[in-house]
Design brief:
single chain; 321 residues; alpha/beta; TIM Barrel; eight-stranded parallel sheet; two-stranded antiparallel sheet; 12 helices; 14% strand
């Protein structure tokens, strides 16, 4: 495993982190299998784990807490997120700060996460949605700053709404934010335009989430793909999105280098960008852990392929209807 610095904390973070949504928010997850995968990831050098209260109403956090207790001698970094009070993702323009992150609520859910995970201090606490219209409101600023002052958290972050990478730039200017979590993959390359330069200038860490576009970039999706009722992927891959996605995956399949899988190419492409601190694929199985962490070997994609992959960029926007 190779490591990158989280600039403001000075932490050495594994460049392949662990996204824990699938362990509580998707169908098919099983705790025993999750623990095996988590333990194997730690054995292979993964030290950054991203969870959220919303992943199973604290279930994913509790899984992480149990994992930490099984590895007391390891320095493992814990990142979680405060859910929006109105439980709406993403944060629509009409939502107010009071709807989503009132000050007392920020403190309340930080304490819930501390209890779930069983630690005194969270390494990284993040807001799970964001609207930059709130950036200058000092109520959220004071609430987050107090978490640091009281040593309940070491660093603060924002998880940016899907397909809205510039909807955080004003918040970054406050100086309070240490890390930004953003959708970034071979299809969704638009964070490179404005967000990444801003993060590099300000010394803000970038956590690349959804590296496989909820599964399409594993190359296994078909026009008949369906999931059990209640699974998020049924909503994300609605028929219109699925029809638009599959031809793009087929075009990508043609440029995967011999001997390399599509997921490995996608992870290497993400890690190619110097602004990225860590990428957090979801890994529910041992095979996923070993394949994804195996990418962290310092092997870069050929410059010609990196250039070609720019042509697979898909600029998508949020549909508010």
């Amino acid at each position: 495993m190779r490591y990158r610095k989280l600039a403001r904390g000075g932490w050495s973070i594994s460049e392949i982190g662990y996204g824990m949504w699938g362990m509580a928010g998707w169908t098919g997850s099983e705790d025993r299998e999750s623990f095996e995968a988590l333990d194997r990831a730690i054995e292979l050098g993964c030290n950054f784990f991203d969870t959220a209260w919303a992943y199973g109403d604290g279930h994913s956090e509790r899984l992480l807490g149990e994992t930490l207790r099984r590895h007391p001698g390891k320095r493992l970094y814990v990142a979680t997120k405060i859910p929006p009070k109105n439980r709406k993702w993403p944060a629509r323009p009409e939502y107010t700060l009071d709807d989503v992150f009132p000050a007392d609520y920020i403190r309340e859910y930080t304490e819930k996460s501390l209890e779930n995970i069983g630690v005194d201090t969270l390494d990284l606490q993040q807001l799970h949605v964001w609207n930059d219209r709130w950036a200058t409101d000092d109520r959220w600023q004071k609430a987050l700053a107090s978490l640091k002052e009281q040593k309940l958290v070491r660093a603060l972050g924002i998880s940016v709404n899907r397909f809205q990478p510039i909807n955080v730039l004003r918040a970054l200017e406050t100086g309070l934010i240490d890390a930004v979590q953003v959708v970034y993959n071979t299809l969704d390359q638009n964070p490179e335009d404005e967000l990444f330069p801003a993060c590099e200038e300000l010394g803000i860490a970038v956590i690349a989430r959804v590296p496989f576009d909820e599964g399409s970039l594993t190359g296994t999706l078909t026009e008949n793909s369906r999931w059990p009722e209640g699974d998020f992927r049924n909503l994300y891959f609605h028929p219109e999105n699925l029809r638009a996605t599959l031809p793009r995956i087929e075009r990508l399949r043609r440029v995967v280098p011999p001997g390399m899988t599509m997921p490995a190419m996608v992870l290497r492409h993400i890690l190619h960008h110097p602004a990225v601190t860590t990428v957090i694929p979801g890994m529910r199985k041992l095979s996923h852990v070993e394949q994804n962490i195996g990418v962290s070997d310092g092997t870069a994609l050929p410059p010609t392929l990196v250039q070609e992959l720019k042509g697979h960029r898909w600029d998508r926007t949020v549909d508010w209807e």
